[in-house]
Amino acid sequence: MAGRSKRLLELEKTVWPSEPHGMLKHLAYRLYLQCWMGKLLQAFPSATVVDCFAGPGVYEDEKPGSPLMVANTYLNHTRLAHLGHLRIICQEDRSDRVERLKHEVSKTPTAHGLEIQIEKPGKFHDRVDQLVASARRQGEEYPVLWLVDPFDIKSVSMADLMKCVAGPRDEFILTFFANEMYRLAGKNDNLSPALDRHFGSNAWRKALIYRGEAERKQAFVDVFAEGVKSRGQFEVADFGIRVANMSPRYSLILATRDMSGLQCWNSMAWHIDRVAGRGQKSGMEDQFDLFGGQSEYPRLEGELQGLAGREASWSQLVDTTLRCGFKETHLRQVLTRLNEKGLAFRASKLENKTPWPTGCAVRFYAPEYLDLDCD
Are 318 and 265 members of one domain? Predict the structure, then answer.
């Protein structure tokens, strides 16, 4: 409790110290943005990143804040010469932090193709309509990524998030405080209205049936994700921000309509968490498959085994893989494992020496076929 109180006091200052969870969150942002910029800024002449809680642009130890982290990711991109124009829109509530942000931005190297736009001070909720109008200045067909990183649950509502991602190429990354929800939801009546606004309904109460800490936290994430999906054709993924062996302090939630977004997200997740790609303990140590061997990626293997009796195209398999939180490299590994068991075979006759080339079709079989006697 004392540590949390000290942290809250630090956050009242204009500039506050960096801490491990925040640095890991920035790493996740940076890895995602490197992929996002490489894909979208080579396909579109322009894109926008909106930093909805921009802060002062720097930490006490001189590490860059999120707006400058985004700018540096662009300026240091290996494909910079081929990237389109990037506009970064910064919104911050406090005027002292806005002034410090302006000072920090003034020191940022100028470059053709980079524009940093600092809005007047104001709360995200009060300014969201103006931010949406500014982000869509060039038209809603251009990509917009919203970084929604508040200090608390009360600062962001589902209604405001949906305003941000009303365009076909809009997506958001939200800092989701499952830890606070676990500690306070159902115990603090003052928080209930804020949770209703955050989830867009009282559906968060479904998570209260889970008693274990990890299970209830993940249930909050899952219920929120379902709420987002129910409001549009969104793909939703999450990643737990944790350091050392601690449980995640909070999660990052991605909402996108583009499978390329999931591809970038999963690449980031597996780069940081090479065991499970989720930012938390994998829970896979005791998961064995029906043949008695240990399954390295049980969720993906289970999804593919669910295709038994059918043939699937490569694009269908990739989409299934991304929705499960994996990459194409994992798909090929699992297909090889199923092939060794006699449960998956390449159906198409592509001239390729690799076992699972892009574009191939795969036929799946159920385990019971292996027990059939052949005459």
Answer: no
